[in-house]
Specification:
140 residues, alpha+beta, five-stranded antiparallel sheet, 7 strands, 26% strand
């Protein structure tokens, strides 16, 4: 389990897809300031689901049995960390031009998809771009 500022990250498994890496972000609605009934963020996640390869897939969103105070967001798990981590902790290894081009192209594809459906990503930082495997970038 990883504890972030507003949520805890735990490993999740699917009965139908046991080999697919998933994670569950657990939010406390009051401390994370997310209203489960009217949150635009949760609406976007529900809408995006698994619609584009360059966007982190959201499998489901559950509200806890505690009156919705706990929000559970099940998403694909990007085990190779963030683009920020890759750049800062790359072990002294610089990214090759081809890798940078590939990541840039995937980033543009994801942002273009969001723009096409009327969504603007407001936090374009290396910390919100995740490395799914050695050459595939996802945006959250």
């Amino acid at each position: 389990m990883v504890k972030e500022a507003n949520y805890q990250l735990v490993e999740a498994k699917s009965k139908d897809y046991p080999d697919l890496p998933l994670c569950c972000r657990l939010y406390n609605a009051s401390t994370a300031k997310i209203d489960p009934k009217s949150s635009e963020y949760l609406k976007f996640l529900r809408h995006l689901g698994k619609k584009h390869g360059s966007i982190v897939a959201t499998w489901d969103i559950f509200l806890g049995e505690d009156g919705g105070q706990t929000i559970e967001i099940v998403q694909e798990y990007c085990s190779n960390g963030t683009l920020e981590k890759l750049v800062k902790e790359g072990g002294g290894k610089k990214l090759e031009e081809l890798e940078i081009s590939l990541y840039g192209w995937q980033l543009l594809q994801g942002m273009d998809f969001l723009g096409d459906i009327g969504i603007v990503h407001r936090k374009l930082k290396t910390e919100v771009f995740f490395i799914l495997n050695s050459s595939f970038l996802n945006s959250s």
